[in-house]
Amino acid sequence: MPQHTTEQMRNVVLLSHSGAGKTSLAEAMLYSAEAITRLGKVDQGNTTSDYDPDEVKRKISIYLSMVPCEWKGLKLNIIDTPGYPDFVGEVKAATRVADGAVFAVCAASGVEVGTELTWSYADEEEGRSIPRLIFVNKMDRENADFFKVLGDIQQRLGKRCLPVMLPIGAQDKFEGVVDLVAMKSFIGEQEGEIPDSLKQQAAEYREKLAEAVAETDDNLINKYLDGEALSDDEVRTGLKLATVRGQVVPVLVGSATGNVGATMLLDAICEYMPSPVDAGPVAAVNAQSKAEESLSPDPTGPLAALVFKTSADPYVGKLTYFRVYSGTLHSDSTVWNANREGQERIGQLYMLRGKAQEPVSSVIAGDVGAVAKLVQTETGDTLCGKDRPLLLKSIEFPNPCMSVAVHPKTKADLDKLGSSLNRIVEEDPSLTVSRDLDTMETVLSGMGETQLDVAMEKMQRKFGVEVTIEAPKVPYKETITAQANAEYKHKKQTGGHGQYGHVFLDLVPMPKGSGAEFAERVVGGSVPKNYIPAVEKGVMEALKEGMLAKYPVTDIQVTLYDGSYHAVDSSEMAFKIAASHAIKKGLADGRPVLLEPIVKIKITVPDSFTGDIIGDLNGKRAKVLGMNPQGGWNVIEAHAPLAEVQRYAIDLRAMTQGRGIFETEFSHYEEVPPHVSQKIIAAREQEKAEKS
């Protein structure tokens, strides 16, 4: 691909609900631009962007993919993204480095939940609203209805969405399109007059387009109000300005699999989407002075490149994707990672198209590239010059909302488990891995069941690690509800020295979240000072297993207040054993109860689903704290037992047709209701019996 200037670039992300045809649309654009010689199909697993074995197997996009092409002297960096909600991390990363977005909407299904969600991401990105186009796809599909879908688009995405094309026919009679800017028809490669059946509609929509465009310029609005027709060039110029400002969202139409409308979409990206220069400067923070700087997309400026994806390539190893916002990144150079405060050696740079890698000597401001084998750089880091360490705003990934416990199948798998999980998380920062110290489980958390399944399959395929997954154990705890005193005398006589340790303990319940504390108020030396640490050790070890279900005991203060000793037979071990037995007696007398972790859950759903959500939360023993309506949506906050919401990602998606989102955080521990406690204790006893 020849060299292009920053002004000649367009960075565009493809967004939509899963199944609306983004990958097929990317394929049609590549084929039309002669970047590929055959038109691949998702069902056949041979598209340029869905090349990963997991994507081929599942017939869905899982990872973002770079599919650049050249069109009319411009370089279009097109980023194909997943539509399935589990892989929102990839969408967030791609949206972060794009200057414009193309939304694919199915001509039969209309605006679906995934489109609404990604539309909101484009509104939220970096405090700016990303300019966008809409492509109504699959006009040759059964039940396709452009005008019905257009009404749906305008109702749900805004009246500013205006058609710049109309379809000629629909379903099996779909032939071509009408260009409302040029006021011409296009059937295949044939340009012609608008069919009589569409002339009136075309004139009406052209008038609406001219009115919206005229509002961008005083001269144009005066001309329009004087009743003069705007020229095609004036409409194009005004439409670009309106699109970049977000005043208009052009709506195009076609069929990706039939390769109808792809060339006009390429034209629209070139004409209406902003170049990096049009997008303007970005904010950066000087890592040394902490001062904010404004970086223009200038190839001669200070280097600042944002890493937006990391992948494990089977041939070149770790592959790092980046976008250069300022300056120029050269092959075989050294750069500074401002986040890690360390140098990185840059080897060969690449331009990516799917899995194909084209070596390049440099990547200039506004362009996107990749480099292999960086040592410390991770997704979200900024690469810059050491003399001017700049930090670009990182990528905000959503918090995980579903977790699984990961268990290796064999000893060999155990040895490789930690490193392979770390590499999986490095590739997808929307995944997190942690160790639960209460249950001693390795926990992998993500956005949903499919994402976690894919991660497990990837571990086996890429790193040769086989694992089993299950719902994480709930870290229950126990406590006492009444003060109790306990005495135990450990006395044992054998040949030689015997064993003697005698303690009196006071067990007092403490407020929630206090943990387990040990204190002593021994007077008169009834227990010598040198044995008190042994008593404490015995107490703390005994509190690791309660009386009800062998869960750790918390929110308790244990005080050693008396005892006795033997000048010859007493030992640290004897006092430790005495303390352990005394704790067991005291816990039994302290009216022990089971505690469960409570999480604070924040659920955002359309108003129409509020009743269903509240009813479901009540069935999960949750306590609703409040509701906050926000423009057709409702934000519900509640406290819920962790045990009841471990699979809430699946439940919420089913209840809201995928429209609901939620996040959780640990809040506190609460006493388990008696009827639930009995079931937990019985299950725990069965678990212990099976292991013994």
Describe this structure in words.
This protein has five domains: 6-192 and 245-279, Rossmann fold; 282-392, Translation factors (Elongation Factor Tu (Ef-tu), domain 3); 402-459, Elongation Factor G (Translational Gtpase), domain 3 (Alpha-Beta Plaits, 2-Layer Sandwich); 478-590, Ribosomal Protein S5, domain 2 (2-Layer Sandwich); 594-676, Alpha-Beta Plaits. A hairpin with a 7-residue loop joins strand 8 (165-168) and strand 9. The chain is elongated, with a radius of gyration of 32 Å. Helix 6 packs across helix 7 and helix 6 packs across helix 8 (232-245). By secondary structure, it is α+β, with helices and mostly antiparallel strands. Helices cover 29% and strands 32% of the residues. Strands 1, 2, 3, 4, 5, 6, 7 and 12 form an eight-stranded mixed β-sheet that branches. The chain is built from 17 helices and 38 strands.
In short:
This protein has 692 residues and is of the alpha+beta class.
Structure characteristics:
single chain, 692 residues, alpha+beta, Rossmann fold, Elongation Factor Tu (Ef-tu), domain 3, Alpha-Beta Plaits, 5 domains, eight-stranded mixed sheet, eight-stranded antiparallel sheet, 17 helices, 32% strand, elongated
Which helices and strands appear, and what pairs or packs with what?
Blueprint: E1 9-15, H1 22-32, H2 53-58, E2 65-66, E3 69-71, E4 74-80, H3 88-96, E5 100-106, H4 113-124, E6 132-137, H5 146-157, E7 161-163, E8 165-168, E9 176-179, E10 184-187, E11 190-192, H6 196-214, H7 218-225, H8 232-245, E12 249-253, H9 262-272, H10 276-279, E13 282-286, E14 292-295, E15 304-313, E16 317-326, E17 328-330, E18 333-337, E19 342-346, E20 349-353, E21 356-360, E22 362-364, E23 368-372, E24 382-384, E25 390-392, E26 402-408, H11 411-427, E27 432-436, E28 441-446, H12 449-463, E29 467-470, E30 477-480, E31 484-492, E32 499-509, E33 516-520, H13 532-542, E34 556-564, H14 572-589, E35 592-606, H15 610-619, E36 623-630, E37 633-641, H16 648-655, E38 661-671, H17 674-691
Parallel strand pairs: 1-4, 1-5, 5-6, 6-12, 7-12, 33-34
Antiparallel strand pairs: 2-4, 3-4, 8-9, 9-10, 10-11, 13-14, 13-25, 15-16, 15-24, 16-23, 17-22, 18-19, 18-24, 20-21, 20-23, 26-28, 26-29, 27-28, 30-35, 31-32, 32-34, 35-37, 35-38, 36-37
Helix pairs in contact: 1-9, 6-7, 6-8, 11-12, 13-14
